[in-house]
Records
---
Amino acid sequence: MTKDMSYDVIMERRTEIMKTAVGIDYEIFESGSIAFDYERMMKETGYSFQEIKEIQETTGVGNTPVYELRNITQLARKFAPKGKGARIFIKDEAGNPSGSFKARRAATACYHAKRLGYKGVIAATSGNYGAAVASQAAMLGLKCIVLQECYDSRGIGQPEIIEKARACEALGAEVIQLSVGPELFYTFLVLLEETGYFNASLYSPFGIAGVETLGYELSMEFREKEGRDPDVVVITNAGGGNLTGTARGLIRAGARDTKIVGASVSLHGLHMASDTQFNKKSFTTGHTGFGIPFATWPDRSDVPRSAARPLRYMDRYVTVNQGSVFYMTELLAQLEGLERGPAGNTALSAAFYLAQEMDEDQIIVVQETEYTGAGKHINPQLTFAKENGIEIIIGDPSKEIPGKNIILPKDPSYIKIEELDLNKTKKSYIKNAINHVKATNATKEDLDFLVEDTKSNIEFVKTTLDELGISH
Amino acid sequence: MEAKRGDWVRIHNTILEVGQRATNIPEDTQNVPLEMWVKGFLLDESANIGDKVTIETYIGRTVKGNLLEVNPYYRHDFGKSIPELLYIGLQGRQILAEEGDNND
């Protein structure tokens, strides 16, 4: 008998396929209402912090250097009011085996797959996570498949994604490239079922716990060098895992006063699933097209309950334009001697502005960099933008229209941020959480869960529920 | 014949035809098929570009598709000259060299 592999049938089997492919029964964490036991999920399916450190040390992950960006700090101070202009630092995560912080997530996921006896791992990613999984799989002797959304219907691919495919193949992985569309998830499910491999999801408890070491290292490094924790950590935000893991690591270290700022590239107006708009964007990650939907509903990911829950930890969420990130990437090379990939510099662009709001003796940290290379570099990315009809302008970045132009700031004073209204985001999240289980009533447990999951307070949650007509 | 058994090749496949695509996606995407590209060693004795072939991928999976390329290679590079970027380093260094610390 041949199994029915049609789109609808496979999608109906998704829960069953995922359970086999992640090895977690997510049902046991559900309350039956809005709440689910996040901390229990993180604890029971994960590893102790000590174990994770050991797993990562074995595969050469983590303990990356931190650099003080003295010239960029100095430059920010030129535009700051007297006494303002915090010291800007960067954690050079490009030093990980696969060239980005994603090695931390891949290390734990691959270790777990190996321990459970899976023969291989599959990751659905067009980003740095692919090379990270391929690299860890190579070290552990696991087979690896990376599934990418790469081309539009003309067969034209984003240079950044093509470079990542090359990196995965260089590390012995099979790379499957698809054209634009969320039905990538269907192909993913078919592959999981066919191979019986482990779903090295970015959003599993193992993956997120793997990033906790980053936040923990930051706290330890700053206590050692500066005698205190950083005042602000800025984190490039897409699916929310980088932010969640880093914040949890800082909390684990006891750095409870450190403020967490999420930063995304604004791709306002571009539809992520549109074939014709796919190659109109110049960032394939760290942008609002992932950042906002994953913040307002994290459980849209490839596992039933995402371990990446950015609203739980975020104090502010800001956006920057594409041009400012390209500009900062060039400045990082020219003034600090660090040539790194653009996507990792999203948080740096935000930090450049945020530092000007802070006192001179304060510390602001950008917690990642990523590798750069052919395709994944400002020159090929801007070349590609021009070839796709995007105009490159030197001027006022606040006038940038994603998909039409990229505006490089005409001088550093033009680098600004846009503040997102986090209360609005939190309200959207609460609405989605209710719709997810079709709730008409919220229990005491639900209220506590929603307060935690939105880093808000009971009054805020109650008011939101009243607005939505949900009794509590 | 353009390819023989054992050659490293790239194949192409259609996963979902127009009409089979998810309904909750933008219209422009619904109007085109969902396509796939993958590489592997040719299992057929010989084949020409466009032929329906079977390959074994690098990790040992068997996949069918239309032969697209023999000995595929990457063409991405460091792009063309972007003169618009040239002011950034010069301007940054110049501002740093100016006297005074704060903009007050």
---
Amino acid sequence: MRVKVEQIDACRWRIPREGAMRTDGLVFASRQMMAALQKEKSQALEQVRNVATLPGIVGPSIAMPDIHWGYGFPIGGVAAFDAQEGVVSPGGVGYDINCGVRLLRTGLSIDEVRPQLARLADELFRNVPSGVGSCRRDLRLSHAEERKVLTRGARWAVEQGFGCAEDLLHIEEQGVIAGADPQLLSERALERGRNQLGTLGSGNHFLELDLVEEIGDEQAARVLGLFPGQVTISIHTGSRGLGYQVCADHLQLMQKAARKYGIELPDRQLCCAPLSSPEGKRYLSAMACAANFAFANRQLISAWVRESFARVLGKSPEALRIATIYDVCHNIAKLETHQVEGQARQLCVHRKGATRAFPPGHPDIPEAYRSLGQPVLIPGDMGRHSCVLVGTAGAYEETFGSTCHGAGRVLSRHAAKRLARGRNIEAELAAQGIQIRAASRATLAEEISESYKDVLDVVSVVEQAGIGKLVARLRPLAVVKG
Amino acid sequence: MNSFRLLEHTADMGIEAKGDSLAALFRQAALGLRQILTCCTDIRHREEIQVEVRAQDPEELLVNWLNELLFLLEVRQLLPADFVIDSISDSRLRARVQGEFLDAERHFLEREIKAVTYHQIRVEQRAGGWRARFFVDL
């Protein structure tokens, strides 16, 4: 069924409240993006509308310009629910709980790295497990250690010698979400987690070396330690099988809970429970475990990146100067306080393929960056760009302090494969100076640049809407895919 | 009549399965899942694992059955070749998963399926048989 959409301005569209909707939908998109959303078979706009039917939603059901068809919630969706009257939905977070991005800076310029780029890509591909079923044989977690990972997050990894305390200062929530109770996880979730800690996974997850191509805000770039011609590293992964199992377990519980609390669902994947209910509280606590697992995962991978650079370039850590700029979650539900119509309200903000983007001065931003706004890391596709942004007051006022999370897919995997047929994607990227190492040819074909919107178009809408501010534009040099 | 086909989705993939009985439908859905995971045809019947799944309704049963297969693959490394549904009702399934343990020399997994979702899930009986439609998260 076609969804009714009204244009508000050049980058905002309203899906007016009707039927079972409790509020409007608000979609950030250019005219071209909206035309594509309406034309294709995609059901992303229906999904924005469906989220608007959930009890206790506060403000509109929001979609970022990287919106695409998800399962239940759209990808690129943001929805806030009242802590007393609202719900929490595992489908509003997704299977890959705390899937996110970490950006590391180096003290190296492209000239120092270029001659060793192929070796670096080989070494990263070897040293960081990627692809289905891979794991580090030297990392075996006992049951007791796994429980510590779930409660201590990135802190656990640092305590084990992976990285330094300074990394923790530059991670959302400082790398650990409070309230995690491993007792709430099924044996299956724990089992799936034990041999998958420290793995990248597959699909759209990656490890990437980038070049800082252009600076959009010099002062902010200086504070973040970014300079033109610099080499940076991005890590995109999440909570692996442990997170998937936590989500699956709680979706099953929430199917029952939704019936018990009389919540009508337009799509079963939206199943949910009141935030104040035992089911809702248990999910948030289990979700925190998986989120902490993901923080530890990115922390371990960062340590192996540092190790790989030292090995290939033969330089000391002091010479490499690899440091965490920031680490963001883009699949998460968070209890936050926001001003709604002049009143401070406690809300549970679901970000499903969306990034927190708190404004300058917010106390949850690391002190070093507080005057700038929260760093926001937006990866694009493997052939074009990625962007570093900072959060804005506009995002805080309009989107519960949220912005986009990536480029957003436009092609189905089938369509991407058709487009890639007969082409040598590796050679095409190599001709652009990009080294690719991929565990799966299918993944490579499905992840071609054409599968995604141009991230610069997405960021342009974000900037125009005032829900994010561009600091730097990066270009890929080497990409490791699962 | 017994068949499956893959459905397009922007980020993920879907499966539409048909079967002349509920048991045949669940086998076809599992074969569809296997096709998304791997294009290997050389999977031998060396192991057989019995599974039992329970649920509140046929849709949930389908999700739990397929997620069970993902668990067996990920944790027990069992790459399935075929599925024998021994008994099935709306709320309970007993089956044997036949296949072999992953052998890196011969097998290659093309994709990781994170989970089978409830998004727009349907299991329905129509004139002439059963149909299911569901999406997986990749």
